[in-house]
Amino acid sequence: MGSFDKEINRRRTFAIISHPDAGKTTLTEKFLLYGGAINLAGSVKGKATARHAVSDWMEIEKERGISVTSSVLQFNYDGYCINILDTPGHQDFSEDTYRTLMAADSAIMVIDASKGVEAQTRKLFKVCAMRGIPIFTFVNKLDRDANDTFDLLDEVEKELGIATCPINWPIGSGKGFKGVYDRENRAIVTYSDTQKGTKEGETKVISIDDTDALIAEIGQDAYDKLTEEIELLDGASAEFNLSEVHAGKLTPVFFGSALTNFGVEIFLQNYLKMATVPLARNTKDGAIDPTDDDFSAFVFKIQANMNKAHRDRIAFMRICSGKFDADKEVKHVQGNKTMRLSQPQQIMADERKILSEAYAGDIIGVFDPGIFSIGDTVCAPKKNIMYEGIPTFAPEHFARVRQIDTMKRKQFIKGISQIAQEGAIQIFQELNTGMEEIIVGVVGVLQFDVLKYRLENEYNVEIRLEPLPYEFIRWIENTDIDVKKLQGTSDMKKVTDLKGRPLLLFVNSWSIQMTIERNNGLVLTEFAKN
Ligand code: G4P
Fold it and tell me: What whole-number distance in Å separates Cα of residue 295 and Cα of residue 394?
C-alpha cells in the first residue's frame, strides 16, 4: 500500500482521438460541464481565445519559471479526477499529436455518425493499438442523419481491426432520432434536445417490455425497427468482456449527440466504470507501480515557443508514480542532475489554476532551459530509473532542404540538428552522402513552416524546401541485412536517420509490399523504438 493510493486510484487519464469536426471539442466541453469545471455559459470552444490566453499568461509568468499547459484539462466527477489530453488536429497535426497518446491510459474515439472512420482517426488509432490501451467509441451527431448503425460498426471492425460491443443502440437519427436503447438495463432513454449550456434534459426511461408506453413514445415504425435490430444485434455482436476492453481488443460503443448533450453523461459514467486506473509503465528494469511512493515521470512532449519574444521551451511530463511536490528536488536521470522543478499549472480557456499537488496519472508542464529531451525520466533523487523511450513515428511528408546562403553551412547544420533533436522534425541523409543532402520528414505539413521560421529567426539561416513525392517511411528491423544490396522498386529511396539507422522511403504502399516480397525475411516497421 502506498501513501497516495487513494489519490492515484481515482485518476483516469485519456486522450480523445478523432478526425477534425467529429465533435472532440464539443464533447470535451460537455464533460467539463459535468465536472463543474466551467460555468454554464462558458466554453472551451473559443480556440483562438484559449491560445491568446496561453501567450498572455506566459508573458506574465515566464519570469517566475512557472509553466502552463493548455494541453491537459482536469476535472472532478463523482469522486474521480479526470485528465483529458488534447491531441491537436487540423493544421497542428504533428508528431506531438502521436506523442500525447503515449501519456494517456486510454483513448476515446469520436466518430461522426454520418462520416464513419476518417483518415486522422485511423492514424491515431494505430498508435493506440500499438500500445494496446483501451479504446472507447462515441458515435456522435445522431441528431443529424446518420449512416446505418450496423454499417458503422462494421466499418470500425474492418478498417481498424478492433471488435465492437455496443453498450447502447440508437433509435433513428436526424429528425427521427428518438433516443438510445440501453442494452444492459433493457430500457430506452428518450432523446431530448437540451441545447447548449444545460446539463440534463427531460429524458424518460422506458422498459423495452413496456410495449404500449414505448410505442406511444417513439411510434410503431421506430419500435418495429428497434426490436428487429436488437434481435440481430444480440445474435451478431461480440459479448462484453472487460479484460478484452482493457487489452484494447474490444471497444465499447456509445451513441449520442454532443451538441445537444444527449448520451454524454451515460457515456462518461460507463467510461469511468470501465476505464483503468493509471497504468504501470515499463523501465529498462521492469514496470514501476503507479502507487509506488517515490515520484517519477517521463517527458513526452517539448514545446518550443513560436514567438520570438519568449523563446522558452516547455517540457510536458506524465507522472508515472507517486506524488509530485514542487518543494522537493527531483533527479533528471539522463542529465544525471538533481534539481527543483517549477510549480506546475494548468490552464483552461482563459482561466488558470495553480496546482498544489499532482499525482501519478497527471500531466505537468515545466519551463525547460534546454536540458530535457523527449522520453527523458525525472524521478526521486534516490532512485535511478529510466522509462522506455517514446517511439519515433513515421513522417508522411518529405522535402529536400536547400540552403540559400551556402556560406552559413555551420549554422545551418547546427540549427537543423538542434530542431531535429527537439523532435519537431526528423532529418535524414541519403545513404553514403553524409550531411551533403538533407531530407526533412514531418508528420504534419505545418512543421515545414515551423522549421523555416525557426531557422531564420533563431539561426539566421534561410532555406528553400523542395517537396519530395514520398509518403511512407519504414525502418528496417533486420540487423543482419546489407542495405546497399536491398532490392526495392525504382521509386524507392534509401536513407539513414540521425542515429545512423537505415530506412526506406516509398511513394506508395504498393512499393512497400513489392520490396518485402523481393527481399526474403525483410522486416519493416512504422515506429522506431528508441
Ligand atoms: P472537433 O473539435 O472534433 O474539430 O469538432 P467540434 O467539437 O469543434 O465540432 C465541429 C462542428 O460540429 C461544430 O459545428 C459543432 O457544433 C458540431 N457538432 C459537434 N457535435 C455535434 C452534434 O452532436 N450534433 C451536431 N449536429 N453538430 C455537432 P460548427 O458549425 O463548425 O461550429 P459552431 O459554429 O457550431 O461552433
Answer: 32
